[in-house]
Amino acid sequence: xxxxxxxxHGCFYTLEQLYKKIEKSYPxxxxxxxxxxxxxxxxxxxxxxxxxxxxIQFAPGNHDYMFLHFFKDPSSVFARSWFxxxxxxxxxxxxxxxxxxxVHLEYIKNAKLYYNLKDCFICHxxxxxxxEKYLPADFRNNLDMLDPxxxxxxxxxxxxxxxxxxxxxxxKLQIVGHTKQQDITLIEDSHALYLDTGACVGNKLSAxxxxxxxxxxxxxxxxxxxxxx
Length: 229
Fold this sequence. Notes:
The chain is α/β, with parallel strands linked by helices and about 230 residues long. The protein has helices at about 10-25, 45-55, 60-70, 75-80, 85-95, 100-110, 145-150, and strands at about 1-5, 30-35, 55-60, 115, 120, 175, 185, 190-195, 205-210, 215-220. The protein has one domain: Purple Acid Phosphatase, chain A, domain 2 (4-Layer Sandwich). The protein has seven helices and ten strands. The chain has a five-stranded mixed beta sheet, covered by helices on one side. A five-stranded mixed beta sheet has the order 4-5-6-8-7, with no helix packed on it. Helix 3 packs across helix 6 (about 100-110). The protein is globular and about 50 Å long.
């Protein structure tokens, strides 16, 4: 059994309270996030610090990689895109924490792009259905076959950090963020669960408790206004 949190986007106080709810109901449970820890909300530094301190595993999102590449590979498409995607609040939150910022960037760099767990498959934007034509019929028996596609397409519109395509049915629950929904949304055909419920635009931060592809419970926290105002 695992807990998975949706896109956080600098909403530290909202995250803190949601995490307390998870811990109260499921003490000691392994907690994951679908990424997009930074940008838009006011407290990106505090979010990443909290993620590290509480050993929350995360699959980095496109915003996390834009932040990373801005400092590590400034000519890349990720770095260039950051100017148009809410970077101001992230830069402000790290203004007095520059040494820690580079520690956080290394943490993002070393994060796994996806988690293929017994309970579910976790990544940021999802595995596009476009890959189905390149895979053998029995690929669901060995999802490691996806790895070359994930790595090679990391910068493309159909890649694991960017895709808006319908998602590939992996034979287990695929939990993603990236595409905002008003509420947690399950697409039955692709067995995909969308977990970005717009914390950074004043809606809520959501989490789901999952056991072997079954949704046990959903947990939500309304966005705290000091995260976005």
